[in-house]
Structures are given as C-alpha cells and as structure tokens.
Design a protein that fits this description.
This protein is of the alpha/beta class and 125 residues long. It has one domain (2-124): 3-Layer(aba) Sandwich (Rossmann fold), CATH 3.40.50. Helices cover 50% and strands 22% of the residues. The chain is built from 6 helices and 6 strands, in the order βααβααβαβαββ. The protein has helices at 8-16, 21-28, 39-51, 54-69, 83-92, 102-107; strands at 2-6, 33-38, 73-75, 96-98, 112-116, 120-124. A hairpin with a 3-residue loop joins strand 5 (112-116) and strand 6 (120-124). Helix 1 (8-16) packs across helix 4 (54-69) and helix 3 (39-51) runs antiparallel to helix 4 (54-69). The longest helix has 16 residues, at 54-69. The chain is globular and about 35 Å long. The relative contact order is 0.23.
Length: 125
C-alpha cells in the first residue's frame, strides 16, 4: 500500500479552488493507497489558524476539521525537522507527495501528485 502525503499548500488549495482532494486522489491513483499528513503540516495549519486573518484562517480551520473527520493518519516526525525536508525524505522512501509548491516539486522523487488547472489531481511521473 502506497502512502499519499498531502502538503499544507495542497490542503489550503482544496478550499481556495473548491475541489475535493480526496475524490481527485481516488481518480489519479489506480492502486491501493492511504492518505496521510505530517505532524508538521498539522502544526502549520494551527499556526495559520492562530496568526492569519480572514480566508486563510477559515481555510486552515476547515482543513483541520476535514482531516479529523476523515480520520487522516498523522505521521510523527523527528523533532526540529523542516516539513519540506521530511516530505522529501518520505518521497525518497516511496511515498507520493501531493503539493503545489514549485520548489518542493523540484526536490521530490518522482512520481508525485500535484493539482493541475485548479481542479484535478495528476500523477507526475
């Protein structure tokens, strides 16, 4: 079973673009997978919720609720590890990372997942 790890910006894009990432991942992946997030991603969402205003705060609050409702598995990382570095490490170990971050995409091992045309998730090989 493959790990599909969703990055913070992809979660925020879910609200911004009004797409169902979970349904889109289902369409993009024709194999068994389990959706997960990093503990650092949860902390980033909580930080956005606490420090930002308006639409970003609402988006972060909504995503935290969705992750809890969907019972998405949270991966615990070592202390003081940068989230992007952990995502790269997970990618090298065979996990599929779903992200919108251009710089992160350059560092990830292929395949990975990304959002195209603000509405579909595609597997980049």
């Amino acid at each position: 079973m493959k790990k599909v790890i969703i990055d913070t910006n992809a979660l925020m894009a879910m609200v911004e673009f009004k797409i169902d990432l979970f349904a889109e991942v289902e369409k993009a992946c024709d194999f068994k997978y389990e959706i997960m997030v990093l503990e650092g991603t949860i902390k980033e969402l909580q930080q956005i919720q606490a420090e930002q205003r308006s639409k970003f705060k609402r988006a972060a609050t909504l995503m935290l609720a969705v992750l809890k409702a969907k019972k998405v598995l949270v991966i615990t990382a070592a202390k003081n590890v940068v989230v992007d570095d952990e995502l790269v490490q997970q990618s090298r170990q065979g996990a599929l990372v779903l992200t919108q971050d251009r710089e992160l995409k350059k560092r990830l091992s292929r395949p990975y997942l990304t959002i195209r045309q603000k509405r579909i998730v595609v597997l980049v090989e």
